Amino acid sequence: MTKKKMGLEDLGGFVFSTNDDFDENELTDNEQQEALDPEDQDLEAHFSNKGRGGKTVTIIKGYVGPEEDLIALGKKLKKKCGVGGSTKDGEIIIQGDDREKIMEILNKEGYKVKRVGG
């Protein structure tokens, strides 16, 4: 009867990276990103209703910085527009087609915002 293999050590010491300079900290690069100043950000305001059961949303893309700052910006936009939404995958999703209002708010905060689509 053979011994059942239970872990990576039992598989013969595989080397998963051939790069000798591999740094595990590179994998968490997004968390360590520094936030750019608002005037250096190039944001895009998109309108979408695909994949949402016909409901319209405004999507803000292009933010560069830590996830916590993106969440705070999303929260501020939702509060000023008086609507719901979420922040995920580096995008701020605001319920409804409030692109003009959102672009105005972001411009007052110092962000450069470009209207994309429709």
Automatic annotation (TrEMBL):
Lineage: superkingdom: Bacteria
Residue ranges with Acidic residues bias: 20-42
The entry's keywords: Initiation factor, Protein biosynthesis, Translation regulation
Record-annotated SUI1 domain positions: 50-110
InterPro entries membership: DENR/SUI1_TIF, SUI1, SUI1_arc_bac, SUI1_dom_sf
Alphabetized PROSITE patterns for the sequence: SUI1 (PS50296)
Any Pfam family matching the protein: SUI1
Disordered, as annotated region: 1-50
Coiled coil: none
GO molecular function, one term: translation initiation factor activity
Protein family membership: Belongs to the SUI1 family.
Protein's recorded name: Translation initiation factor
Source organism (scientific name): Autumnicola edwardsiae
